[in-house]
Amino acid sequence: MMLITTSHRPTRRTRSFGHDLEKVFPNSTYLTRGKKTLQDLLMEAYERGYERLLIINVWKGNPLKMTFIKVSPNDWGYLGYLYLHGIKLQREIGFREIRPIREDMPFVITTAKRTGPDHVSFAQVFAELTNGEFVPRRDMSLQTIADKHNTDIIGVVERHPRGMAINFHRLDVDKERAVGPLISVKIWIMEDGRRWDYKEALLVKSKKRE
């Protein structure tokens, strides 16, 4: 699915975040960056057969930005960016020793129930960024969605006090609870010009109430 790495000189928390993502993106690999250039990373991803490269950038010791890049020998390019409020690691949610899935498996993205149009838009965008599949939630349970799409992994976009968040379910690990990591997103930007900003969205809502 994708090669996951960090900016140079990552913190321990950022490395842990990368390892957590390796466990919820099927058939993906976390790679220690070292001195590798962007070109080195693209070549590594291509040689491993991945279609995406994810780079986690750090600010003040914490993951700040997730940069998604399309991998292609002749047509690579930046796809989009997530700017983060914060994260909660799998171990902080109560899950340790989860094994990565080393096989091709659909990665499905949906929304929690009772979410709004902004959450649906972000779920669709996240599917584009990860090369996953967006599935409208409607009244289906996560287990029903998983069974229909023959997968154990579902990313769920949900409400968050400071914007929106995406959490991850591994139904082979726990049928009820999300395993994380929980990613709180304050801004997303796509290279084609689409974007969403938590503060801008709040301003629009406040004007509608006036």
UniProtKB/TrEMBL annotation:
One of its GO terms (biological process) is maturation of LSU-rRNA. Coiled coil: none annotated. Gene3D superfamilies: Probable brix-domain ribosomal biogenesis protein. Keywords: Ribosome biogenesis. Residues 1-196 form the Brix domain. GO terms for molecular function: rRNA primary transcript binding. InterPro entries: Brix, Brix_dom_Rbsml_bgen_prot, IMP4/RPF1. One of its GO terms (cellular component) is preribosome, large subunit precursor. PANTHER family: RIBOSOME PRODUCTION FACTOR 1, U3 SMALL NUCLEOLAR RIBONUCLEOPROTEIN PROTEIN IMP4. Probably involved in the biogenesis of the ribosome. This is Probable Brix domain-containing ribosomal biogenesis protein. It comes from Palaeococcus pacificus DY20341.
